[in-house]
Amino acid sequence: MERSQWKSNIGFLAAAIGSAIGLGNIWRFSYMCYSNGGGAFLVPYFFALLTAGIPLLILEFGLGHRKRGSAPKAFHLVAPHWEWLGWYSVVFVMFGIMFYYSVIIGWCVNYFIFSFDLKWGSDPETFFFQDFLQLSNGPLEPGGIRWPILFSTAFVWFLTWFICYRDITRGIERACKIFIPLLIVLTGVLVVWSLSLPGAGQGIKMYLKPDWGKLFSGENWYQVWIDAFGQIFFTLSIGFGIMIAYASYLDRKANIVEMAVWTSVINCGYSFIAGFAVFGTLGYMAAQTGLPPDEVVKQGPGLAFVAYPKAISLLPYGREVFGMLFFFVLILAGLSSGISIVEAFACAAQDKFNARRGKLITILCLIGFAGSCLFMMRSGLFWLDIVDHFLNIYGLVFVGLLECIIIGWAYKTRILRKHVDDLSRRRWSPLWANSIKFIVPAVLIVILGLRLLEDIRKPYGDYPRTAVIFLGFLYIVLALVAGIVFTFFPWKGEMKRPEPIDEG
Ligand code: PHE
Predict the structure, then answer these.
(1) 55 Cβ closer than 6 Å to some ligand 1 atom
(2) In 3D, which of 55, 78, 54 has the Cα closest to residue 67?
(3) Is 340 a pocket residue for ligand 1 (Cβ < 6 Å)?
(4) Which of 41, 297, 349, 389 is most exposed, with the fewest beta carbons within 10 Å of its own?
C-alpha cells in the first residue's frame, strides 16, 4: 500500500499546530500561569520549552520522518525490542487521554448551545456542578450517565470519525487548513473584545505580574517547575506518538528543525495571546463584582465553565455572541487535537496490521465513545481530574525520557543527527544531540522523581487513597501490558528499512 503524504508542508504544519493547539492552550495554560506566580510562570515555561520541548519535537519529527512510520514502526526499526514503547504511547493516548478529552469537547458543545440563551443564569458555579454535571459525592459513587453529555460527546465522536475516516490529505489536512486560520482569527476577535472591557487592565496585571518568590522559594517551589514541564509536554503533544505519525507523512525534503520551531513558536505564542482574552475578561469581572481578582478563578475546568460564563453574563452587550464565539473556539481547538490522537493509533494499526482505514477508524471511534462513558457519569469530573494528573506526568514525561535514552544512548544520535542536518540549512546537530543525551534526560529525571516523591508522600487531591492509586497507576500498567501484547503480533504491513544507512 502506497504511504499517504501531506499535499504540502503547510498542510503538515497546519495539522501539527492543530494537534498542539487544543483545550490545553486556553484553560490549562491560563490557569497554570495564574496559580503559579503569574508572569513569572513564563520563565519555567520557556525554560521547559527550550530544554525539553523543542529538542523532543525535533526528535519525534526526525524519527517519524526518517523511519516513515508510526511510533511502533519507528521504534521497531530502531530496534525490535523497543516496539512496545511506541504502542504504549499510542495506546494510552487513544484509550486514556482521548476518553476524557472528547468529553470536555462535549461539554463545550453543550455550553455552545447554552450560550444561545445564557442558560447558566446568574450562578454559573451551581449551574456547572449541580445542574450540568450533577456531580456525585466522590469517584466511587458513579451516579449514572448524564444524558446531555452523552449526546454531545457522541456528536464529537461523530465529527472525529467524519474527519478521520478519509485519507489524511482529504480529511485531517483539509480540516486543519480551515480550522487553524479560523481559530487564530476568532481568538484575535476575543482578545480585542476582552481588552476593550473596562477593568481588563487589572486582569492583565494579575496575568503578567511576576511573583518571583514562587519560583525559587516557598514550601512547594518545585511544583511550579513540574507544572511547567507537564504543560509543555501536553501542549506540544509530545510523547503521544502523534508527532511521529504526522511526520511520517512528510515530504522527503522537509526541513525538520524549521518545522519544529514553527510549531512550538506558534503554539506557545497562541497560548500567551489567548491568556490576554481570559484575563482581560476576568479583570472586567473583578471590576464588576468587586471581588478580589484571585477569587474569580478557582480551578482548571472551573475557569472555562464557571468563571468565563459568569464573565459573559456580565457583559454590557453581545453576550450570546461572545459566549458562542468562546465555546466555538474551544470546540475547534479541541477537535483538531482529538483527530490527531485517533490518527496516531490508526497510523500504528495500519502500519502493523495493514488494516483498512475506513473500518479501522469506525471501530476506534466506537471504542472511544464507549470508553468516554466513564467520564459522562455523575462522578466523571473526579475521574477526569485523577486520570489527567497521572497520565500527564507518568505517561508523557516517562515516554519522553525513554525516547531520549533510546535515541540518545542506545541507538546513537549519529544517524538521526545526520538526517536532521542534511535537511536543514544550518548544522543544529551538536547542540541538539547534546541536549537529547544530557540536558533533557537530566531535567526529566528530576521532574519525575520529585513528582513521585510528592505522590507517595500525600495522595493527589482529597480522594480516597485507593481510588487514586487504583485508577491512576492501573491505567499506566494496563497501557504497558497492552503495548507489550501488541508487540507480539506479527507484522502484516510492509516493514522494510527505508534506506541502507539506517543500519546502525
Ligand atoms: N496539545 C493539546 C492541548 O494543548 C493536547 C493534546 C492532548 C493533544 C492529547 C493531543 C493529544 O490541548
Answers:
(1) no
(2) 78
(3) yes
(4) 389
Instruction: Check if 20 has its Cβ closer than 6 Å to any atom of ligand 1.
Output: yes
Residue partners of 175: CB distance under 8 A and separation at least 6: 18, 163, 335, 336, 339
Distances 267 to 5, 216, 340, 495 between C-alpha atoms, Å? 23, 27, 15, 34
> Which residues on adjacent β-strands are paired with residue 377?
145
> Each residue of 166-194: pLDDT tens digit?
988 889 999 999 999 999 999 999 999 89
Ligand 1 neighbour 232 (Cβ under 6 A): no
- Distance (Å) from CA 390 to ligand 1 centroid: 15
| 496 alpha carbon – ligand 1 mean position (Å) | 31
pLDDT of residue 314: 82
pLDDT reported for residue 394? 75
Q: Mutation test of ligand 1: which of 26, 337, 396 has the most ligand atoms closer than 8 Å to its C-beta?
A: 337
Q: Taking a C-beta distance cutoff of 8 angstroms, is the pair 308, 281 a contact?
A: yes
Can you tell me the mean pLDDT for 286-303?
71
- Residue of 288, 302, 368 lying closest to 95 (CA atoms): 368
| Dihedral (CA of 43, 387, 26, 166) sign | positive
Please determine, for residue 240, whether its predicted confidence score (pLDDT) is greater than 80: yes
Report residue 356 as a C-alpha cell.
483498512
What value does the mean pLDDT take over residues 412-427? 75
Highest-pLDDT range among 82-91, 132-141, 221-230: 82-91
Contacts (Cβ under 8 Å, ≥6 apart) of 139: 379, 382, 383, 386, 463, 464, 467, 471
**The residue to which cell 541536549 is assigned:** 435
**17: its cell numbers:** 499546530
CA distance 158 to 461: 34
CB of 235 closer than 6 angstroms to any ligand 1 atom:
yes
Q: What is the value of pTM for the model shown?
A: 0.91
CA gap 292, 45 in Å, rounded: 26
Query: 328 or 386: which carries more pLDDT confidence?
Result: 328
